[in-house]
Amino acid sequence: HSVEKRFGQATAAEATHGMALAAMMAKSYDLARNLLNAQCLGLEKGCDQWSKGKWALASMESALGNHAAAAKLSLDIADAAKVPPRFRLQALLNWVDSAQKAKTEIDFDHAQKRVEAIVGSIEDYRSLLDAARQLALAGSPFRQITRTIAQSAEARAIAAFQSSTNPTEATGILNHLAR
What we know:
The termini are far apart. Helices cover 79% and strands 0% of the residues. By secondary structure, it is mainly alpha-helical.
């Protein structure tokens, strides 16, 4: 608490996060879990430090083979509206992966609707292209939606390229499109 009194809640949360990561490295997983859970309880759902804490917990649980716990934590992140869409999408894909490893049944139609909702909040073509790439790596359950998102992203990128007025911007658009 002295860190919080001297430097504020944000610094204390970062320090707690650092201690939890150090505990993970030392294989003191229960300590890391307790630190991160306590930290996340005191933070606004979806804020940057909350997201980092939940992500660290999900990664640790997955590495430990606690796939059901990792799935729940990933879904918490995916459901947090304040988290940027690209991270929400990756969290949702992590949820699918962890749930499958936990042998939990997944309603892929519902998962696809969730993907559509997250991707629907993405406005710029770069992030949309990145979302299509993330989904392509997720494999067959998302093959059709991946094509739809990729086509939309490509159309937006081409429109941005056609309206660009300087060569540096145009080259950047082409490079992002070609990745």
